[in-house]
Design brief:
Elements (H helix, E strand, L loop, with lengths): L1 H27 L2 E6 L9 E3 L9 E10 L7 H15 L3 E22 L4 E22 L2
Parallel strand pairs: 2-4
Antiparallel strand pairs: 1-3, 3-5, 4-5
Length: 142
């Protein structure tokens, strides 16, 4: 019976660590929210930062928001995820624009010290943010 309890405990610890690790990985990874048309996947994607840089005729096939994970991702990580999604959706190019930082919550704390004749209160607050990168997926028109 004692061996069984030890085995069960170790199994629960292993499962808990696995779930915690999965949450950490998913929380760090950027996500991409896409709305638009789907075409056959493409291999090569052109990346533009301004519509004036696109020298070919094109149509916008979709819009995307790349969002950092809750624990944060770099804009480069977000861009890489957007390009990966563009390939999956069959885009020929991506126009990146409007980097922003959204406030998704806030935290605050307060500490009060009482001394014989003095009362002192320290308050601090911080915003919880996520980085967002917007993009258009385009398809060249022959």
């Amino acid at each position: 019976m004692e061996k069984y309890k030890k085995f069960t405990f170790l199994k629960q610890c292993k499962n808990t660590l696995l779930i915690a690790g999965l949450i950490l990985v998913v929380g760090c990874a950027p996500t991409v929210n896409y709305i638009g048309k789907n075409y056959n996947p493409t291999e090569n994607i052109d990346i533009f930062l301004d519509t004036n840089d696109v020298k070919k005729n094109y149509e916008v096939i979709g819009k995307v928001d790349g969002v950092s994970g809750i624990l944060g991702s770099s804009y480069q990580d977000i861009q890489d995820k957007i390009v990966q999604k563009a390939k999956e959706k069959g885009a020929d190019a991506v126009i990146l624009y409007n980097m922003e930082q959204r406030i998704i919550g806030s935290t605050s704390s307060s500490n009060t010290e009482h001394r014989q004749w003095m009362k002192s209160t320290t308050t601090s607050s911080n915003n919880v943010t996520e980085d967002v990168l917007h993009a258009d997926f385009i398809k060249y028109i022959p």
